[in-house]
């Protein structure tokens, strides 16, 4: 009997327990189901679809090289897979366990119809497996990190299994029929320059990154330096597992590897929160914030204009605009700038973090439900562990502090001729070019409005 491997965001062969288990039992049918029904409004965004197309193409090639195939089907995953099990006479469906609430629902539903076998493998440790002394899952990052460091031990990874083909293959959709790529306008030109989706490229990126891991602790804060791994979309789609990365840097000493491990632990921490709080991306986890703190772009024209300026990178704050334009052109934004841009939306513009989260969901190639929600709630001060709302980042001094001049000149062509320090704050230096917008709100004014709104919310 053949065995089905159901793929979602685990598009790799090595260190993939579902493939491993299925291959040990018989011929394997690898299947990807494009499911826009189960996630509903959480269907994959446009940038993710671009990535998915190329990642599936890469995986299909890898499978074909060993005489296997990737079967593509479309529809509600639980129904499609139950039908495919009947059609192929498959013994069982094997899959990696996912933490997103809609995937947990689909897993539950499918398990009623077929023999569904779930394995861990998306995170360093299974979400929910680490417990406090009181037996509850962790809510706060630092104790979570300490517990994970204590628990993880030596990390082994599974090799890629040899797959045998079933006697006959079920029919497959054609990837090009899914229309995952943009047509008119084709906004993905910069994506091609920035990225090569697929496992082979992910591993090559990790190897290249090892060479710059030494100064990672400092360099990762500097948007003008290419000092981070840029592995986030590869990790999101599971082209490489975090355990493979952990394994790859085992034995490397120093602060660079240590800080990199801490970032991987943030990813696990986010999944651990969503495991406990499935609606973490849908509502603020501190009281009051969702009832009246925010300016509402649906009913307030000036809030709508501010939101559009933020999305388009036309706020008049160079560091924010550079970040938002990097996002639009490449589907990725530097972490330091994500924090500045997110804080600016939520505090200076007083717009609900869920508006920003939704924009990131559509435009990031690494859009990830747990990580996106956790970071937005962190920046906004609304999360179970987060910054305080009243600690308001000053975008212009952040820009100077993290030496973002070259980054701004790269992404905001209107400012390309301005040198430091003028480029950080052309308005105050009276050198704002005519084609660059004036700040949508002054820093002090924005700060005071946010603090006043917060005070009013607290009553
Ligand atoms: P590196 O510095 O090389 O870090 C290595 C890996 O660690 C990353 O690839 C990522 O998987 C993980 N990581 C690093 N920082 C974080 C973090 N703060 N939280 C969770 N995981 C982290 N990351 C996403 O993967 N998807 C998102 O949708 C996402 N949304 C974000 C929204 C906001 C408002 C902010 C402030 C951050 C968000 N991040 C998100 C986290 C972080 O910005 C990115 O993971 C990081 O910039 C990716 O670049 P890198 O791979 O070069 O990171």
From TrEMBL:
EC class name: lyase
Domain (Photolyase/cryptochrome alpha/beta) ranges: 1-124
The entry sums up its family as follows: Belongs to the DNA photolyase family.
SUPFAM superfamilies the UniProt entry points to: Cryptochrome/photolyase FAD-binding domain, Cryptochrome/photolyase, N-terminal domain
Any Pfam family: FAD_binding_7
- Mind telling me which PROSITE patterns this protein's record contains? DNA_PHOTOLYASES_1_1, DNA_PHOTOLYASES_1_2, PHR_CRY_ALPHA_BETA
Q: Which cofactor does it need?
A: FAD; (6R)-5,10-methylene-5,6,7,8-tetrahydrofolate
A GO molecular function assigned to this protein is: deoxyribodipyrimidine photo-lyase activity
Known EC number? 4.1.99.3
Q: Which domain of life is it from?
A: Bacteria
The name this protein carries in UniProt is: Cryptochrome/photolyase family protein
Q: Does the keyword Kinase apply?
A: no
């Amino acid at each position: 009997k053949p065995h089905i491997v159901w793929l979602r965001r685990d598009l790799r062969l090595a260190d993939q327990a579902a493939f491993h288990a299925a291959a040990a039992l018989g011929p394997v049918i690898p299947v990807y189901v494009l499911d826009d029904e189960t996630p509903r409004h959480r269907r994959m965004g446009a940038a993710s679809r671009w990535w998915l197309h190329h990642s599936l193409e890469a995986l299909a090639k890898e499978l074909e090289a060993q005489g296997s195939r990737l079967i593509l089907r479309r529809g509600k995953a639980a129904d499609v897979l139950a039908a495919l099990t009947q059609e192929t006479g498959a013994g069982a469906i094997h899959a990696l366990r996912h933490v997103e609430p809609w995937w947990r629902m689909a897993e539950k539903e499918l398990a009623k119809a077929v023999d569904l076998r779930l394995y861990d493998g998306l995170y360093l440790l299974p979400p929910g497996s680490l417990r406090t002394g009181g037996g509850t899952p962790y809510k706060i990052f630092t104790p979570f990190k300490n517990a994970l460091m204590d628990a993880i031990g030596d990390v082994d990874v599974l090799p890629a299994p040899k797959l045998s083909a079933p006697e006959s293959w079920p029919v497959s959709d054609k990837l090009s029929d899914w229309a995952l790529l943009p047509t008119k306008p084709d906004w993905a030109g910069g994506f091609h320059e920035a990225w090569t989706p697929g496992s082979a490229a992910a591993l090559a990126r990790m190897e290249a990154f090892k060479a710059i891991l030494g100064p990672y602790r400092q360099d990762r804060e500097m948007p003008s330096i290419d000092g981070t791994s840029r592995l986030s979309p590869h990790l999101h789609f599971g082209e490489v597992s975090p355990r493979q990365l952990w394994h790859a840097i085992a034995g490397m000493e120093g602060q660079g590897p240590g800080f990199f491990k801490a970032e991987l632990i943030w990813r696990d921490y986010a999944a651990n929160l969503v495991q406990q709080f499935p609606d973490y991306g849908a509502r603020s986890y501190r009281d009051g914030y969702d009832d009246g703190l925010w300016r509402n772009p649906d009913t307030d024209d000036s809030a709508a204009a501010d939101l559009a300026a933020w999305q388009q990178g036309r706020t008049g704050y160079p560091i924010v605009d550079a970040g938002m334009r990097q996002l639009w052109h490449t589907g990725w934004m530097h972490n330091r700038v994500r924090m500045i841009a997110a804080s600016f939306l939520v505090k200076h513009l007083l717009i609900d973090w869920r508006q920003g989260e939704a924009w990131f969901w559509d435009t990031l190639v690494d859009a990830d439900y747990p990580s996106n929600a956790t970071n937005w709630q962190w920046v906004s001060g609304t999360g179970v562990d987060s910054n305080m709302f009243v600690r308001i980042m000053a975008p212009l001094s952040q820009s100077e502090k993290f030496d973002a001049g070259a980054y701004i000149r790269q992404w905001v062509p209107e400012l390309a001729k301005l040198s430091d320090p003028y480029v950080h704050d052309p308005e105050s230096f009276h050198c704002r070019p005519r084609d660059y917008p004036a700040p949508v709100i002054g820093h002090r004014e924005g700060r005071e409005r946010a603090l006043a709104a917060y005070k009013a919310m607290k009553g």
